[in-house]
Write a structure and sequence with these properties.
21% of the residues lie in helices and 41% in strands. It is an alpha+beta fold and 135 residues long. The strands form two sheets. Strands 5, 6, 7, 8 and 9 form a five-stranded mixed sheet that branches. Strands 1-4-3-2 form a four-stranded mixed sheet. Strand 7 (110-112) and strand 8 form a beta hairpin.
Length: 135
């Protein structure tokens, strides 16, 4: 035992967005995420979270940019690297549905040692992997 609690997990990942409502519409409409919280914090700020419908894994905190520095990071939070990984149990199904909904894939699906994967961009250009891991 290291002194840390045994039951810890990454629960929420902040994603800087241009506009709360635009981001909610994209994640709910394109990825079939659910809006899990939308709390008015006053002063134009909100606590907005979305998550996959089954609520497995971390949720996203959609954080509207405040100021020029944060705005300059929209769409490039990781310097052009894949930022988030959306795991699925049926790659072909989800890839087809996402294409139907207008999600922009940056490459054709490929088979790797770790699973089937393709990179897509969110509404601001952040890169994601849609991945069906090998089991």
């Amino acid at each position: 035992m290291t002194g840390f609690a045994e039951n810890r997990r990454v629960a929420t990942v902040a994603l800087v967005v241009r506009n709360y409502d635009e981001a909610i519409a994209w994640y709910v409409g394109k990825l079939d995420f659910v809006l899990t919280e939308d709390v008015d914090l006053g002063g134009g700020k909100r606590w907005v979270t979305v998550a996959p419908a089954d609520r497995h894994g971390a949720r996203l905190l959609l954080a509207e940019a405040s100021g020029d520095l944060q705005a300059s990071c929209i769409g490039n939070q990781t310097g052009g690297r894949v930022f988030l990984f959306l795991e699925t149990d049926d790659f072909a199904r989800d890839h087809a549905l996402m294409l139907e909904k207008g999600v922009e894939f940056r490459e054709a699906p490929r088979h790797e040692a770790y699973g089937t994967v393709a990179v897509f961009a969110d509404l601001h250009g952040n890169l994601w992997d849609l991945i069906q891991p090998k089991r």
